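Lecture notes, structural biology module. Today: joint structure prediction for complexes of two components.
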Amino acid sequence: MSALQTLILLLFVTLAVLTLAAGLRGTAPKRVVAAGLLLWTFGAIATIWPHTVADLAHALGVGRGADLLLYMTTLSLAVVCFYMYARFRRVERQLTLLVRRLAMDAATETTTPPLMRNSIPSDPVRRTDSGTAPRLLT
Amino acid sequence: MRPVALDQARVFIIVAAFNEAASIGDLVRDLMEQYAHVVVVDDGSTDETAELATEAGALVLSHLINRGQGAALQTGITYALAHAADYIVTLDVDGQYDVKDIALLLAPVSDGTVHAALGVLPSEHKQSVRVRLASTLRAIGKLAGRLGLRPPVPAAHNGLCAFSRHAAQMIDLKLDRMTHGSEIVQQITAGGLNLQEVAVRVRVSDYALRKGQRSSHALRVAIQYIMARFTR
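The predicted structure, tokenised, for the full assembly:
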């Protein structure tokens, strides 16, 4: 094994230990730990026996092992981007709900209390299922 | 046009404003002449929009940070519904609309003909970004229809709308930015409620033209709308 291989192998082992530790402490969700360990194991195998990747590439109809790695990296990057975007949108939405709630609370402090809805004569088009609270957390 | 016999106390006007100190005061004063409840949602403005609106007599709801027009309108709608509004009007500050036209929109809503009325600017008014945006979005919708897809963008966005309480309850704007026009139309029609487009006059002010955005904006609105469908 070359010096470079040893170095990279050491890196993967360190990453695996850190991932496992995070999993045991409970700071990372189980599926993230599992995916991480799988990835580091794959990296270690590819470092020790480089042509396993080449064999896998041939089996999948890809010319070289390096090409297979490139394709996999690109694909996972796209997945990660999409996941981050979805997460970002979720956080944005929560932020909006929070800002709205603060605006509403500040307004009710400075104005007279709102009329209770059930003191208003019923109206055929008005939905009766909703209560007096504004819809904020849906 | 017949006069509208309408209890003004049940009408809430919602104005979403972001750094509109130049025009918000006059707009609120115009509105207060005819309507009792004018709610300005100050969307995290850094100028004195909130102070000027309060001074002019509006009730001001303040977003601590800017969340976009859709978010601000939803805050106003939520507030109005919680305060027993029967009719809700949303209005842009950009000065392209005539305050008197609000009555035109309220007429079909208050007599029960429709649940929502959307103000439409004359299409020959090409200087208006809103009109260009509307025609671009319509073209995209037509293209999608031809490809056998459900048009992704039901309609252009509207700067002046009137809603019945029932219609307003259907609205739950999740897209914070400018896509809310399409979202409003989609949610109201999905709820089985009818709506009507009402031609309104346009006021070409320097202010409105200066505020104009690029027409590439339409494409951005469309993309944002489509992406949101996948990530919800």
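Point to remember: Residues 113-135 of chain A have pLDDT under 50 and may be disordered.
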